Amino acid sequence: MTPQTQTQTQTLTQTRPVPARTPPEVVPKLRLEGVGKTFPVRAKGRGRRGAPATVTALQDISLDIADGEFTVLVGPSGCGKSTLLDLLGGLTTPTSGRILLDGEPVTGPGLDRGIVFQQYALLPWRTAQGNVEFGLEATGVPRGERAERAREVLALVGLTGFEDRHPHELSGGMRQRVAIARSLAYDPGVLLMDEPFGALDAQTRESLQDELLRVWERTGKTVVFITHSIDEAVHLGQRVAVLTSRPGRVKEVVPIDLGSRTEDEDVRSSAAFAEQRHRVWELLHDEISTAQRQEREPSTA
Ligand SMILES: Nc1ncnc2c1ncn2[C@@H]1O[C@H](COP(=O)(O)OP(=O)(O)OP(=O)(O)O)[C@@H](O)[C@H]1O
C-alpha cells in the first residue's frame, strides 16, 4: 500500500459514519389509533338539517397492546365494548382512525385472531373433538394433524377424556372450554374474548378464569377480554382499560399488580385486590350512572 492510499484508507475509516445504535422500536401487537365507529340508525325523521341519524358508539380510542399482554376492557352497558372487539376481529371497519396488528392495518377477519363469544356457538351434531377440528378443516390442515391438534388444545383447556362428548352432554363451563379450544386450534397470536363467562354460574366462572390464566401463561397469547364484572377484570387483567359511557372513550388504563394469579392462594380476598378493585369501581361508577340516564332517553339510546 502506498503512503497515499494508506492515508486515504485511514481517512475513509475515520469519516465513515458510525451506525446509529438506537434501539429498534417495539411494535405493539395491537395498536388502536384514534378509532371511532358510527352507525347509521333508523330514527323518526332525520338528524339535523336532514342528515341521516347516526349513533356514535366509539370515539377516538387510542391504545397499544403489547405482545403477550392480557388486557381487559370494562365499561357500562352500551359503551361500545362489543363494537370494539368486532373492530379488532375485523368483522367491521372503523369510521375513523385505524387498527394495526403487528404494524399492519387490520382489513378483515383472519386466523391470526381467535374470537370467543358469550354464546358457545358449537355445532350440536359434532363431538367436542369434531367441533375443534371443524375450524381447522377450512384451513386445509391434513386430517391426522387436525385430530392431533384438537386433542392437544382440548387437553390445554382440561378436557382430556371428553373428546367424544356432544355439546348437550357437557356442562356450560365445559362447552365454553370447547369454544376456547376451538379458537386456540389454529394457534392465533391474539385471543379476543367477548364476555365469554357471562352466562356461567359464579363458581364455574371463577374456575374458568383460573383455567384461562393458566392457558394464557402456557401459550403466551395476547388476550383482549371484555367483561361487565369488575372482579373478573381485576382478577384477569394485567391492565384494565375503563371505557366511558357512550360514545366509548378510554377513560383510564389501570395497571393491575396482584403477583401470580395462578397460585392456589385466594388472591380475590387480598388487600391488593380490594384496593385495585376499588380504583376500577371509582372510575366506572359515574359512567354507569350516565349510561343508565342514556338508556332512559330513547333518543340517545
Ligand atoms: N349494527 C349496529 N347498528 C346500529 N347501532 C349499533 C350497532 N351495533 C351497536 N350499536 C350501538 O352502538 C352502541 C354500542 O353497542 P355495543 O354492543 O358495542 O355496546 P356494549 O358496551 O358491548 O354493550 P353491552 O355491555 O350491553 O353488551 C349501542 O348504543 C348500540 O345500540
Automatic annotation (TrEMBL):
<keyword id="KW-0547">Nucleotide-binding</keyword>
<dbReference type="InterPro" id="IPR003593">
    <property type="entry name" value="AAA+_ATPase"/>
</dbReference>
<feature type="domain" description="ABC transporter">
    <location>
        <begin position="30"/>
        <end position="270"/>
    </location>
</feature>
<dbReference type="InterPro" id="IPR050166">
    <property type="entry name" value="ABC_transporter_ATP-bind"/>
</dbReference>
<protein>
    <submittedName>
        <fullName>ABC transporter ATP-binding protein</fullName>
    </submittedName>
</protein>
<feature type="compositionally biased region" description="Low complexity">
    <location>
        <begin position="1"/>
        <end position="15"/>
    </location>
</feature>
<dbReference type="InterPro" id="IPR003439">
    <property type="entry name" value="ABC_transporter-like_ATP-bd"/>
</dbReference>
<dbReference type="GO" id="GO:0005524">
    <property type="term" value="F:ATP binding"/>
</dbReference>
<keyword id="KW-0067">ATP-binding</keyword>
<feature type="region of interest" description="Disordered">
    <location>
        <begin position="1"/>
        <end position="23"/>
    </location>
</feature>
<dbReference type="InterPro" id="IPR017871">
    <property type="entry name" value="ABC_transporter-like_CS"/>
</dbReference>
<dbReference type="GO" id="GO:0016887">
    <property type="term" value="F:ATP hydrolysis activity"/>
</dbReference>
<dbReference type="InterPro" id="IPR027417">
    <property type="entry name" value="P-loop_NTPase"/>
</dbReference>
<keyword id="KW-0813">Transport</keyword>
<dbReference type="Pfam" id="PF00005">
    <property type="entry name" value="ABC_tran"/>
</dbReference>
